[in-house]
Amino acid sequence: MALPTEKPSYGPLDGVKVVYSAVELACPKACDLLADWGADVTWLENTGAGDTIRDTPYVKQAERRNQRSVSLNYFSDEGKKILFEMIKDADIFMEASKGGTYAKHGVTDEVLWEINPRLVIVHVSGFGQTGDPKMVKRAAYDLTVMAYSGYMSQNGTQEQPMNPGPYAGDYFNTLMIASSSLAALYRAAKTGKGESIDLAMYETLLSIGQYYLVDYLNEGIKWPRPGARNQNLCGIGEYKCKDGFLGICLYGVDQNKYFLEAIGLGHLWGTEDIPEDTSGLWLSNPHAQEIEAAFDAYCLERSKYDIEEDFAAHRIAVQVVMEFEDLVAEEHLKERGVWQSWETADGQEFKGLGVFPKFKNNPGQIWRPMPNQGGDTVDVLTKLGYTQEQIDELAEAGVVKVG
To answer: Which residue out of 14, 170, 254, 306 is catalytically annotated?
Structure first.
């Protein structure tokens, strides 16, 4: 199947050009979002095995759609020339590597700004571009930055910390990468002067984990790992029912009153320990263990669907914990147009998700599937002014790879 090479006009980022060099997951997923929203995105893959995402059976198709693939040895002399040509009219250049890798090969911010003064440059690394040299040069993955940031230590049971999955650290960083690059792009458009972003993945996780971290910084409080429940409040967490699990977030005066009545502890409402204006049932309350035990027993005797329907009708935030098969059958998701199918480069149907969020006036779209490694090398280099003979010579020398 021959893939289209001219991006159609769509989305709020139509006209924005992005070039990136990174492998799964955080930075490429950010570029995937920008592509879904209308940016023209070129994915630089090495000339070896390419992006490690290609080893996966399915997620590669979901997270490399709407992109061009140029396979390039970008640290070779000829490769750098091609990279510099590509960023001449780019708006954003992103790279993910150990701190200082690009500068070590002569690709500094200043060199890039000489070519394109308004370029937004995003350096994504585990531990940043500056600081302790030992940490700057350290290899990093989702799990290891989760461990370093202290975020992992806030999750799991009291016996063992656990890493939230799938790859939450990478995907949290995806949103930080996308938002910071667009913030810098806004400023560059106003001033004509580019920006360089030093995005250390652990710092994103620090900022997300500060909810309880600041309690320790200011008062020395260390809340226990909660397991399936909340560190501070009754009625918040995942509870086992006779046919599955329920997620509930109990909060509010009316909600607490009904909750206690429903589980057979209505007599506690309006007492000295639980006054009639109680909005949160704190674990420090002398009745906390009794409340939790009563609710555990209440859930085990009932269907998760019955509790969900009853509690939701009384304005309690509650949802059945959905499994994959539940998601596929869920009518709301169908009516929202969550699911979308498209044809892969080899002509197979691929089932995935549509474009989120939904832009009313300038909606995103899917205009091409994931290309083969280097599938766009010839097209992109031709548009840069290279002849077919020159491209063949570069391929022979190992500077580029043609898919």
So the answer is: 170
